[in-house]
Amino acid sequence: MLLIERLTRVGTVPEVKRPEAAKLVKGDPIHSTWNIEERDGLHAGLWQSTPGAWRVSYSEFEYVHVRSGHSVLTGDDGSVTNLRAGDSYLIRPGFSGVWEVVETTLKEYVIRL
User: Fold this and answer.
1) 62-71 pLDDT, tens per residue?
2) To which H or E segment does residue 97 belong?
3) Which run of H or of E encompasses 91?
4) Which of 31, 70, 74, 78 is a Cys-bridge partner for 102, taking CB atoms 3.0 to 4.6 Å apart?
5) What CA–CA distance (Å, rounded) separates 96 from 80?
6) Which domains can be identified in the chain, with CATH numbers?
7) How far apart are CA 36 and CA 19, in angstroms?
């Protein structure tokens, strides 16, 4: 096990998924995930999605750093958060709403269950 590991997509194969049909709001987004770490309730890696929108509901903490693209998180309370390249956010348990990818988005993530 490496004690320091660079987050990269080079030389790795992503896990590819789509949102569940019941959560899909619009489009046909494709999610690609490069998991770097998954253990003891900690998940970290890279995630990319093509444009589209789907419902989300967080029961975990997620730290997000956007490397490229543009996404919009719209909370059920009406709040709107634009996520753009260079932005970093912490999404806390209890957030629910719609995640919309406006422009293909690549993010680094750390999730704590």
Assistant:
1) 999 999 999 9
2) strand 96-112
3) strand 88-91
4) 70
5) 12
6) 15-112 (2.60.120.10)
7) 21
